[in-house]
Amino acid sequence: MSLTGLKPHRAQLLLLAVVTNTSLVASLILGEVKTWGEIDWLDVFGEGGTAAMLLTWLIFILRSRPAGRVSTILTAGFGLVFLALWQDNLDEFIRFANSQWWDTWLESVPLPIGMALVTWGMYHWHEEQLVIQDQLRGRELSIREHTQVDSITKLSRSDYLKSQIEAELENLDDRIVPPSLLMVDVDGFDRVNREYGTREGDRLLKVIGDLLLMNVRRHDLVCRFAGDRFAVLLPGTGEAAARMMAGEISDAISNLAYKSDVQGNTIRVSVSVGLAQAKSLDATELMERANRSLAQAKGCSHHGCAA
Question: What is the pTM assigned to this prediction?
Answer without folding.
Answer: 0.53
